[in-house]
Specification:
Elements lengths: L2 H7 L3 E8 L2 E6 L3 E6 L13 E7 L2 E7 H4 L12 E7 L2 E7 L1 E8 L4 E2 L7 H6 E7 L2 E6 L1 H4 L4 H4 L1
Amino acid sequence: MSNIAKNLVQGSRELIAFRIGDQEFCVNIMSVREIRGWTPATPMPHAPYYVLGVINLRGAVLPIVDLSMRLGMKAAEPTVRHVIIVAQVNTKVVGLLVDAVSDILTITDENIQPTPDVASEFERNFARGILAIEKRLICYIELDAIFPQSESEAA
């Protein structure tokens, strides 16, 4: 049996890891459409605090979210080194501003440690666990939980 077949049998999944500040996070690679370089966004009035604005992505309007702000960290100061992860979140496609993409990880459920009890309620809602890989701690996040379907769910 090939390694690929063994991984599929064991229920493995691929995650894309990225950095925000000095922390690493990862999301399911199946929600990622593409990775692009930073493009300045056009601000939108009355947008949520974490939405930097919108860009034109091949004729479609794509909202750009400062993932750092959305996760309760300090606002990013985008440079040419930043990247936008274009991802499917719930029923929408959004651009997630991150510092850099660092890895593609293949993991199984056994690699995922539970989120520590010291995490806030907000963190427990979106964090699916912690990965301890190669002396790194990577927070596995669920994008659908970070961005509610409607503003009423966000309140």
